[in-house]
What does this fold into?
Amino acid sequence: MLYKFLKERFIPRIKREFYSPSFKINRLLLHFVYGIFGFISKRHNKKKNAILVWDIRSNSVTFDFISVIFYVLNSIRNLSISSFDVIIFIPKNTKIKPFSWNDYDKYVSSVDIKNRIQDMIIPMAHAFNCVNKIIILDDEKSVLNYISQFDVIFPRNYDPKYFYVEPIDCFKIYNKYLSKNYNTKFSYLVPSNNKSNELLELERKLNGRKYITITVRDYGFSPSRNTSQLDIDNALLIADKLKYHLILVPDETKNLSQYNIDPKIIISFSARFDIDDRINLYSNSELNLFRTSGPSFVSLFIEGTKTIIVDFCEGGPLSNEAYYKKEYNLKVGDQPFLKFGGYIFWKKKYPSYSYLDLLEKFNTL
It folds into this structure.
């Protein structure tokens, strides 16, 4: 039993701390070491171009990709570089699997992760206005050859064999790049002309009439973040008050039956499965409503949208006051997304919000 634990968990975990450290002190130490010994190709004095290597071994295959793009753009803004290339690196023979923390792998499979690369990560990369080119590579030599053409490489000191640390510092995002006095550089998801037949049909039915959206979250991981019936009811009430249509974007379509969905609510299935449709739908909406979830960042990073996130910091393992303070230095009442037209309903301040609260913030965003 001990031997199996050491072989399968402990030793691989120790090795991983050298290649892709999870602890801040280890990252700082290894950045210092690799910086001194120059494992990465030499940089020019004048910085002209930049590239991000999104390595699947050290990145979550989620909507967190949006934050990575935002982080890189603001990290290079003082170099007068306004765009960059992206390498999506999936090494040959790499076993793609979800992380096991808090039973995440019970709800998201390896197949789901593989599909997300094609259906989520790559389309979002293409949609960003600050991304020049997306290159998909699967061997270390090709990565090294390609990044040798660039002056600035993210992650810093990246090497596909020796050092593939995560390329983002969330603490820095929330305490610098999103701060009130910082001259933030915005990375926007640009709506595509590539629309599904379902979305085109929906647009024909709307015929220019205004609408708001609510995006449902209802799967097993962190269930405290899941959408409630009250959320849907409040969304419909504010839509009726404004004389707008309400469009619902589902999560697990099989779970829709657990909600009481009014017949006048329009359900957009294509926006659930097609990133381009999701971006288009949110971009033309008067207001986009969410629980704490990845898709809320799609709305936040579309220029001109209004976004409200309800029941924020509701008390789950990844959504409590201690967690937000430690990871992001956020305290109850902070509003980090105002620059993006986004407002957070902290659960502690809005323990039982109503559509009138939504209406008030909608009118002030």
Observations:
- Strands lie at 50-55, 84-89, 131-137, 152-154, 211-215, 245-249, 266-267, 288-290, 307-312, 342-346.
- The first strand starts at residue 50 and ends at 55.
- Residues 1 and 7 are 10 Å apart (CA to CA).
